[in-house]
């Protein structure tokens, strides 16, 4: 096939043009997003149930759902959470299960459940998709909440009217609610109960279709309805007709409010003002750059047309599209710089025409990879991870072309004929093909790393593999046709002293006067040289053991945004929660002002501040820092100062400041037991042990997640009057939580109509005991006369895993004192003692330490598999067992180069660094393979192994240096990139760049001396065999004599 394309340059050009055209078309169709969307692996069943008791939700809902789905296939784990407001069951599927099928099966089982408690909402079953934010929009100002919500609804409709925007979520959008509040005094004055009022509203405000009247020529729908939508309409509802014929209207006995639900209480502030937020969400079909552009068009239109009333502004912030736009810009810039560098470099060593056509291979390979990324093959998007694949591949893609081009150029210098061109290609076709395959095997293996890490970073590795496939096609079928000697061209001219010729002359001088003599000396003292290389390898490992290169599981990569997650104690009131958020917000502004003054910044440090109280106990405060100031004040600087100045907050359970992409807790322990009480008891013991371990701090647990509860029971008098516990519970719920009489649709909002006591009658225990209770006989009595209260504390939330009650402990570790792994080992040693006192408790490990263990185990298996596959490929092609071991001997020293690269750039060695090391395995083998293959070809024609080794090294030194330097140069822009998105990729880039660069030098020395040492061993074995033979022969001679 190589010869056919060489004889048909038109076919080669058409193949190149076809790849480029299809690649451009594919690029225009590919979605763009910040990070790849991971395929959903979980199904969530959620049921809203305002029972006020986590135990009731667990017993009446959660256990029924667990029981209904327990025998379904394809389920790996079932986790449930029961709280005062309902139940959530999360089902994680097995690796090979069909998610859509599982969702349908779960939905069918859940819908078939009978006996759900009255008042529970319909179960919602859906796949748990990951959601990425495109940008945030806030409508804000000191205006009524209703105005902000109506504007937000209109803006949301305009945004959804754009074809590229499919999902827009509200933040701080309060649920509209019509509240009918009736004072107990008025109820008694008119002889009414809350139930009477609720029934009256239900009777007089309804929408009901009664049927159809069908005539021969028409159909008439019959209805009897009286819908009410506004509070004025509800005020005219007749509650009761008096004996004299007069009517008691609802407005006469009740206060009607058209407002918002107070359960849960939620609000948003933006830039210190009341706000309603909109979050534009990226789904699996969205293009984030297109979404952002369309959102900006809508916002510009609103501003231009004056749609905002006085006192209302729009804020738009946290544009995530900027990350991928900057990455694409970096890719194009790095690509252009890389091509220029390659052309210049190759022009100096080879000639301009060879350099140009080698560089043209880059866009061809990229276009081929873009074709592979399409929906019909890989189904990838253009994102931060896949574009990293292109950046990494940039320096590697020219390797094959450089080797082929250099081989062709060498032959054409001697004989500028098509036959010489074909010979030049065939000379290196097999080693470059096998080298490409080994590199592809190494890179592709990253996609099979355990869990989401493999799915996430597998995209970059498969993109590199796709680039390598098209690199092999381009270098073998397209490039040779472009390097055919032109008509009338003579051998390389010697009379013109060009820059390239001078450089080549100097390179030849370097090779003759420095490289070859140095290699000869290394061969002469090969055992000393081997010991020296071994010492360098041990020195590299010492960088880790001595702590000069820190080890971390996942590096702290700044997020670009500081957000404070607040979780209050379950018995903290909403007032305490509001005070906490206001304090954190004020502290954030003051922290920014102090840092701005200290660093002499002229522009504000904070560009956006949003506070979102999601419910009575939880919420977030987001601080967006100016990108112009991020070099002077990082998110880490701001976070440290903020944490220091926040101080103590009354009623706070936990406060977490997030500023990086590392999301796993360093330590996490799950304690499982048959009952919740048993799990809690085990947790208390384990918690005390953890407190005794030096270096363990910030222990986070829900052992105190309890709230005070008054359990009411009828007194003897109450029972005598016919009251039961159920009667008390029902009337208490009606009075304090209220009757949900009906729901009406008003525009896009579903509005609940609720009847209950006024708010000022539901605030204290005095109000509770002053409540009036209706007995079955119709009497109205004070609650305190017919009921008594039992004080107790109950858990606010209950968790179950695979049917067992579960509780958790999270902790951080001071790594200057100990490590997560050391703490886990200590707890493992302590477990037998725990099990002696609590045999029913099982402890599972999670967090960073467990993820690290699973990933390291997965990587170990993958590395072993990669090495076996590479060895097999090399052994089959070389038809030798020992030669592959010589080739693969450069891998450990390549890893040493990766460690020195981390030291030079001040990077910790992390899981991302290991991905670069895996990729490095395939790359460093290529150079060794070129050298060994050339040696094996030269060996039969030379009498001395030493001469064959030296000649092979002399012939391949230029190609080996070129491939390594171009790989390193291609990664320089990425390693020098100070941006946040570059921080994700620096560890792997440093491993690959310095491993290749260091491995190249090692290859040119280590492989020749190992060949010579192997020959020494062979000769030694031969001499020993001859000695044994001679001794055996002498012995036989003596016996015969």
Automatic annotation (TrEMBL):
For the keyword Transmembrane helix, the answer is yes
- Keyword Membrane belongs to the record: yes
Q: Which UniProt keywords apply?
A: Membrane, Transmembrane, Transmembrane helix
> Entry's InterPro entries?
AcrB_DN_DC_subdom (IPR027463), Acrflvin-R (IPR001036)
Q: What's a GO cellular component annotated to this UniProt protein?
A: plasma membrane
For molecular function, the Gene Ontology terms on record are:
xenobiotic transmembrane transporter activity
Q: What is this protein called?
A: Multidrug efflux pump subunit AcrB
By its UniProt entry, which Gene3D superfamilies does this protein fall under?
A: Multidrug efflux transporter AcrB pore domain, Multidrug efflux transporter AcrB pore domain like, Multidrug efflux transporter AcrB TolC docking domain, DN and DC subdomains, Multidrug efflux transporter AcrB transmembrane domain
Q: Where are the transmembrane segments?
A: 328-349, 356-382, 428-450, 525-544, 862-878, 885-905, 911-936, 957-976, 988-1014
């Amino acid at each position: 096939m190589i010869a056919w394309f060489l004889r048909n340059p038109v076919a080669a050009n058409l193949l190149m043009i076809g790849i480029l055209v299809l690649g451009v078309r594919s690029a225009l169709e590919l979605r763009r997003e910040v990070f790849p969307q991971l395929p959903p692996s979980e199904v969530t069943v959620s049921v809203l149930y305002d029972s006020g008791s986590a135990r009731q939700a667990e017993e009446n809902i959660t256990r029924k759902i667990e029981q209904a789905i327990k025998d379904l296939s394809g389920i790996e784990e079932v986790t449930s959470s029961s709280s005062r407001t309902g139940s959530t069951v999360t089902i994680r599927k097995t690796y090979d299960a069909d998610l859509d099928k599982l969702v349908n099966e779960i939905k069918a089982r859940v819908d078939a459940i009978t006996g759900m408690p009255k008042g529970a909402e319909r179960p919602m079953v859906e796949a748990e998709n990951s959601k990425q934010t495109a940008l945030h929009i806030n409508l804000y100002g000191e205006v009524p909440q209703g105005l902000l919500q109506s504007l937000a609804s209109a803006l949301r409709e305009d945004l959804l009217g754009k074809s590229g925007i499919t999902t827009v979520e509200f933040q701080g959008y309060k649920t509209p609610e019509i509240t009918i509040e009736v004072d107990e005094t008025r109820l008694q004055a008119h002889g009414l109960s809350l139930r009477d009022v609720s029934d009256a509203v239900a009777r007089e405000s309804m929408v009901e279709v009664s049927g159809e009247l069908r005539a021969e020529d028409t159909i008439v729908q019959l209805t009897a309805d009286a819908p009410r939508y506004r509070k004025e309409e509800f005020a005219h509802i007749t509650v009761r007709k008096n004996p004299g014929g007069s009517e008691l209207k609802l407005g006469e006995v009740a206060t009607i409010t058209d407002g918002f639900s107070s359960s849960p209480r939620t609000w948003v502030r933006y830039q210190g003002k009341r706000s309603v937020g909109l979050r534009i969400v990226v789904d699996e079909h969205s293009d984030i750059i297109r979404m952002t552009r369309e959102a900006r068009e809508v916002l510009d239109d609103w501003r231009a047309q004056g749609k905002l009333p006085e006192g209302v502004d729009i804020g738009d912030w946290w544009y995530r599209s900027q990350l991928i736009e900057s990455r694409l810009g970096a890719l194009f810039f790095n690509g252009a710089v890389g091509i220029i560098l390659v052309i210049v470099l190759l022009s100096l060593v080879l000639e301009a025409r060879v350099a140009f056509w080698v560089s043209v291979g880059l866009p061809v390979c990229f276009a081929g990879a873009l074709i592979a990324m399409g929906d019909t093959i890989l189904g990838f998007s253009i994102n931060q991870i896949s574009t990293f694949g292109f950046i990494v591949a940039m320096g590697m893609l020219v390797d094959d072309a450089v080797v082929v081009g250099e081989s062709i150029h060498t032959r054409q210098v001697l004989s500028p004929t098509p036959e010489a061109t074909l010979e030049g290609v065939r000379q290196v076709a097999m080693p470059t093909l096998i080298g490409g395959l080994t590199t592809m095997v190494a890179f592709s293996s990253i996609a099979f790393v355990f869990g989401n890490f493999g799915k996430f970073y597998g995209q970059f590795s498969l993109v590199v593999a796709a680039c390598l496939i098209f690199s092999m096609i381009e270098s073998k079928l397209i490039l040779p046709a472009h390097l055919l000697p032109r008509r009338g061209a003579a051998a390389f001219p010697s009379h013109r002293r060009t820059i390239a010729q001078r450089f080549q002359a100097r390179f030849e001088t370097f090779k003759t006067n420095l490289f070859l003599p140095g290699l000869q000396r290394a061969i002469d003292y090969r055992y000393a040289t081997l010991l020296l290389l071994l010492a360098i390898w041990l020195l590299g490992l010492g960088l880790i053991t001595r702590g000069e290169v820190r080890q971390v599981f996942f590096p702290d990569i700044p997020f670009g945004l500081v957000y404070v997650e607040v979780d209050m104690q379950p018995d903290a009131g909403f007032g305490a929660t509001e005070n906490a958020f206001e304090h954190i917000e004020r502290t954030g502004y003051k922290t920014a002002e102090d840092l701005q003054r200290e660093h002499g910044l002229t522009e504000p440090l904070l560009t956006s501040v949003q506070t979102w109280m999601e419910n009575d106990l939880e919420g977030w405060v987001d601080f967006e820092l100016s990108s112009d100031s991020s070099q002077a004040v990082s998110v880490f600087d701001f976070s440290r100062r903020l944490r220091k100045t926040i101080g103590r907050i009354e009623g706070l359970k936990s406060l977490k400041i997030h500023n990086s992409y590392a999301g796993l807790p360093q330590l996490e322990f799950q304690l499982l037991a048959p009952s919740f009480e048993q799990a809690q008891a085990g947790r208390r013991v384990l918690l005390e042990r953890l407190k005794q371990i030096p270096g363990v701090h910030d222990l986070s647990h829900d052992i105190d997640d309890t709230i005070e509860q008054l359990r009411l029971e009828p007194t003897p008098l109450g029972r005598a009057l016919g009251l039961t516990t159920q009667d008390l519970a029902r009337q208490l719920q009606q009075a304090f939580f209220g009757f949900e009489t009906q729901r009406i649709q008003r525009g896009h909002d579903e509005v609940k109509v609720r009847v209950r006591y006024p708010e000022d009658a539901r605030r204290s225990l005095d109000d509770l005991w002053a409540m009036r209770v209706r007995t079955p006989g119709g009497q109205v009595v004070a609650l305190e006369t017919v009921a008594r209260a039992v004080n107790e504390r109950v858990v606010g939330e209950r968790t179950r895993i695979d049917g067992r009650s579960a509780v958790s402990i999270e902790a951080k570790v001071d790594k200057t004192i100990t490590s997560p792994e050391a703490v886990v080992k200590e707890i493992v040693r302590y477990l037998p003692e725990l099990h002696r006192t609590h045999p029913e408790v099982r402890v599972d490990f999670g967090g960073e330490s467990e993820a690290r263990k699973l990933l390291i185990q997965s990587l170990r298996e993958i590395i072993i598999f990669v090495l076996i596959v590479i060895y097999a490929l090399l052994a089959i092609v070389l038809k030798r067992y020992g030669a592959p071991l010589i080739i693969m001997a450069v891998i450990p020293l390549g890893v040493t180069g990766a460690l020195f690269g981390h030291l030079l750039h001040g990077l910790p060695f992390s899981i991302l660094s290991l991905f670069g090391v895996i990729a490095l395995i395939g790359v460093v083998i290529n150079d060794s393979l070129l050298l060994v293959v050339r040696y094996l070809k030269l060996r039969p024609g030379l009498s001395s192994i030493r001469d064959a080794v030296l000649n092979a090294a002399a012939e391949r030194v230029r190609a080996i240096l070129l491939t390594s330097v171009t790989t390193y140069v291609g990664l320089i822009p990425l390693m020098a990139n100070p941006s946040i998105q570059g921080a994700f990729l620096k560890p792997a880039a440093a491993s690959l760049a310095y491993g290749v660069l260091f491995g190249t030098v090692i290859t040119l020395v280590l492989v020749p001396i190992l060949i010579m040492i192997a020959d020494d061993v062979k000769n030694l074995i031969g001499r020993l065999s001859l000695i044994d033979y001679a001794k055996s022969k002498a012995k036989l001679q003596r016996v015969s004599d």
